[in-house]
User: Fold this.
Amino acid sequence: MSEQKPESDQEKKKINRREFLNFAWLASLGFLTLNIGGITYLFAMPRFKEGEFGGVFTVGKVSELPPAGSPPANYPKVRFWLSRTPQGISALYKVCTHLGCLYNWNDQENKFICPCHGSEFQPDGTYLAGPAPRSLDQFKIQIVDPNSGEVLAESKEPGPLPVPENPDAVVRVDTGQRINGKVHG
Assistant:
C-alpha cells in the first residue's frame, strides 16, 4: 500500500498570471518610489562649500584689504568685486542689473561699465547712467573677530559696510545671500 501525503503537501499552490503581474507592478512601484525619494533627498542637501560661489568666502583680514580709493579687487571664482571706498567695503555681484551681462572695472574712468548696454556704476555700486533699473546687487558681508567669533559688523542693506578698527578681524562674504541694489529715479 502506498502512503498518501496530506493534501496540502501534495498540491503546491501555484501563482497565477494575475497575481504575478500584481506583484511585479507593486515591486516596480516600490522601486520607483525609492528612487524618487533618494533623488529628492540629494537635491535637498546643500551643495555649496566654503570658498565656492553660493557659499561663504573668506576674503582675509581687515589689514589685508586694499586701501580706500584703490581699484576694486576681482574674485572671479566666487563672482564678485570687492570695492573699498572711504565709506566702507562692498562685495558687488558681477552681473549687471539691466540684462545680466558681466560688467568690468574701467581704470581710466574710475567706474564700473557694462560693455553690452553701457550702464555705469560708481565704485560702491551706485547707479550713475544707462538702462539699468537699479544699483548693483551686493553680497552679504560679515566682519568677525577671529578670537571670539563675535560678529563686529554685518551688511543688511545695500551700500558700503563701515570697516571696524580691529586690523585682525576677518572679512567673510556670503555669496548665497544677495542684497538687491537700490532702485533709482
Q: What stands out?
A: The chain is about 15% helix and 30% strand. The two ends are 109 Å apart (CA to CA). The mean pLDDT is 80.
